[in-house]
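step: validate -> pass
step: tokenize input -> pass
step: predict -> running
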Amino acid sequence: MTTIHFTLLSPPQALSRDIECLRIAEHTGNQPLEVKVCPSGYPGIVFQLAADRTAAIESIAIRSAASSDVPVLFLHGQGSEPSVMRFRGAPYTTIQVVFKPHALYTLFGWDASEYCQGLLSAAQFAAVKLENQLMSASSTDERVSLLVSFLEEKGKQANKRDELIEQSLDYIKEHIPSVSVNDLIKALHISERQFQKRFTRVVGIPPHLFIRVRRVNEALRMMHSGQYERLSDVAYALNYYDQSHFIRDMKSFSWVSPKHIAMKVSEFHNDLAGSSYL
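step: predict -> pass
step: emit ->
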């Protein structure tokens, strides 16, 4: 993604359990952009503003729905469908707070399953004052500070944690090439029914679906690294049953085939926040 400059920021210590990173994207050109985004397993908050102080994003579409009235500040829930974000032909800056998978539960006290694949405006997550402050701010640094302060306050208010589910998320991250739901319930000594219920409430989607999303993201990271000569090597490293299974999952979560992504690697971006391509 040579036309977009990305900057990753680490979260402050007070939010490190709940925020993966902050990502700033700056586009200086005047051409419209269509960015395809793979689901990452991470919900988050986005502030997006064009140089003329209007929303930079014209529309966001997934396979099952589309939105053409995208707020300047919005919160997005856990998603399992790839999306297409269409940006207007203008310079813009976006600031994305990338939550950890459990953060809607821990920071906001919500049942995350109620916010899957949706966008909430500032009024819907008690952030109208924040939106006004962000619009009035004179720099990106000031806007980052405002977002962090807002979330630190949220963290003090909610104070809800499901330690077992957070432990399961760590386990998934450490064992992504081979982990299964059965592995998790054995390691955590919990019944499958209880685990499924608690995981879905805290993360927003069932554990088997979350594992598929994260495994595809790991595949995209490996492909982007340039360390694997063949797609079959990536599939093998991630313990896919066969290459057709690997291709099917890749198409499900990224719109196109892994071969297409490999051919378009110069237009592909991958970092802690997730994967996207022009």
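step: describe -> Residues 219 and 234 are 6 Å apart (CA to CA).
step: cleanup -> pass
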